[in-house]
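## Example pair
The file below holds two records. Each record gives the amino-acid sequence first, followed by its structure token line.
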Amino acid sequence: MAQDKDADVRHSTHQPKQQQEAQQQREQERQQPQQQREQGQEREQAGDEAKPVGWLNVIGFVIGLLFLPIVLNSAGLQHEALALLPNSTAYFHAVGYGTQLYLECTDTPTTGTKDGRPTVLIEADVGMGAEEYRPLMEALAPTARVCIYDRAGLGHSGQFTRMNPPTDPYAYMGSEIKPRGDKVGTAERAAEDLHWLLRKANVSLPVTLVSFGLSTMTSRFYSQLYEDDVAGIILINPVHESLLTDSVSVTAPPSPFYQFWYGSVVPAQELRQLSAFMGWTRLALMGGVAHVPVGMGNTTYSKHIACHGDHQRAVAVEMLHANETASQLTIINQFKPLPRTTPRHIIVTSDTVALMPYLSQPKAVALWRDGVGQLARELGAELVEVTLEHHRGDNEHNLGAAGDNDGDNDGDGDGDGCDASGAGDAGDDGDDNDDEFGRVKPRVESTPVVHALKRAIQPLIAAADGEHQQQQ
């Protein structure tokens, strides 16, 4: 047995080397498919794990792309507020339900007609802020005491407006108790707010109302409701209420202007509202894709409110409720028309889009002009035609003021597009641009529009004040 084992050992040790290598190769071939299968499974598992990571990166990029403009716009608005918003409560007055309205006049509140000058109140058109009419206010200041104000939710008033009523909604105006109208964005609500505002601010009454565009319906409503407060009305590019009232007949289609308003103007404003909230408007202004109308020349503030979502939302509400305002005016015309003793004048400008950018279609402009003629006949008002020159050869402003060489088109030289802080340095207490409350006044330009309106309005203000004095 021992010899047999020794023989096997000797036989195994003497096996050819080629056979051993062949056996090892066969063994490797049997193991290779198993290794390949294991490596394939590992690659599949790694791919499955990599897929969620890639989608998370894409989702994160999209979220950043959406929210970064919002953050930048919010920071820009806060920065601009330091230069544009009044830093004194003297400009703000409570009119009920926690709502505070902004009002500013060219001199102290109690002078007015006591020094022989009439008091003029400028009513901003829909979509505009009171600050945009500052150039006109300053142009009229030498011959009249001029006031500008923002309706609820607009401009400066929008920063201090709370629409939720307090615990006791009736005890909000001192000893006089009166329920509060809730028709936000309508002539009835605006007239009631203005009635309380003039009293809370101690504005010397009566006032001559100078209103623009759609807000002329609010001025007319106020003049008919509070006729003792009004010395006269000057309606610039007024809108007749029949254009915005739906057809009386159920089967008849709405008027063409009504279809244009609710088919084009309101949806466009809702898009501007969304764009302002999302910060897209600021990016568009920075890139020169969007522009603001020159109008009265205060393009610095125009860009600010174009980027302000709360202001654009209030504008959308006013536009949406324009038919309600028209219906309110139609009803009050039947029961309490404008007194014949109230002086009334109508001014129509040659360039409609310069002051009414929402009237961009020629057909709508033609319908509007027909309504102006109808209104002049109904009111027996004098109609004055004013020719407006184009400012810088264009109705849109996308160039900064002199010294703006940063390419952001905002006139402040800091590259932020909408930034209105170029109005001045908020910490500068020795500058002539500071007002009595330490606020830095926005930089404005006096445009040909302001000069033309000044020449047309001044004699009408004097005539309205003279007629009112004769009637007393």
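Second record, same layout:
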Amino acid sequence: MIRVVTPSPVPDTGIWLVAHKDNRRNARITAVLTLIAQGIRAQAPRLSPAE
């Protein structure tokens, strides 16, 4: 068997990371959001469509 990957359409919107206003200043929430944002930035070339 061979896995066939169908191309996904390129999203036309950005990625949003949000937190409820009551949790915005929570150190744990901030740490997780920062980690996720860093991971997305590190993968930006792979996430951006090739032109």
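Notes on the second record: The chain has a mean pLDDT of 84. Helices lie at 27-42, 44-47.
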